[in-house]
Design a protein that fits this description.
The protein has about 100 residues and is mainly β. It contains no helices and twelve strands.
Length: about 100
């Protein structure tokens, strides 16, 4: 499934509205001067304003589905149509705003 590559600086949130970003983007591939992320890189989630006090906030996330044909050092890249799961709650990440020039599959 093709989708826009997600670069460092893209707006990605958890279901609760927490901001997510890759811990270590891939410097080998860049889009619009910004490095992209691979599915093997953990993501850090900061703040979950939309959760009740009894629910733990999202802390990290991991992408499970990304590109199949385009890779960086053999690792799949994160795309807009990919799938990611947050920990500890298990909710998905939502790419909100990303670059719209490079599509990969």
């Amino acid at each position: 499934m093709p989708g826009f590559l997600i670069q460092e600086g893209a707006t990605v949130t958890c279901m609760h509205g927490g901001q997510a970003m890759p811990a270590v983007p891939s410097p080998a591939v860049s889009v619009m001067g910004m490095p992209v992320a691979t599915t093997t890189t953990p993501w850090v989630v900061a703040g979950c304003p939309g959760i009740p006090p009894s629910v733990p906030p999202c802390v990290t996330a991991q992408w499970a589905v990304g590109t199949v044909r385009v890779t960086s050092f053999g690792q799949p890249l994160v795309i807009m149509g990919g799938v990611a799961v947050c920990a500890p709650g298990g909710t998905p990440l939502l790419p909100v705003v990303t670059q719209t020039q490079v599509i990969a599959s």
